[in-house]
Fold:
Amino acid sequence: MQGYNEMLNLNKPFALGEVGPQNTNGQFDYTRWLTAIQSIFPRVAYFLAWNDGWSPIRNKNAYAFLNDERVINRNKINLGHGTSTEIETTPSKGKILYSFSNGIGEWKGANVVGGPWQSNEFMFQGMDSLKADIQLMANARYALFTQDKSTFQLNGYKKMIAEAHVASWGFNNYGEISAKLYIKAGSYWK
Structure:
């Protein structure tokens, strides 16, 4: 596919429209698309399959394709309006110190392959989050940070929580990831 790198340079999510087999003989294995997108086009946000004779249901492995964990189904989409079937496991009390609902401000990423971007994929109390693409590797470190001078008043707070999510697909670190939260108070990091 030509133009993939140009699309990446836009730093925006993008899709492949109208993908499918070259003919309608019913022999195309749609699970090949999942493998190709993950290995060759990993930054594609989604794609639309052709219909009629080119559709997954009229070709091989439609069930495996449509039920793969990398394919999002309607019950997995959280629009932030209480329509998700997922259970909220994060405590809902507390004060949100930074919301990305109005953009990402001065936030930057280190050792990321894309982003950071404002995202509504993982919302907390109706607030957007910060998202970045990384290439998971053994012993690698990644950072999302801001050097924006803030006016947060943290006096009296004993605990601060940051929530992080990792996409379920492409996770090759034996299911383990750790994160640290650092805050600079004056000239000291805590």
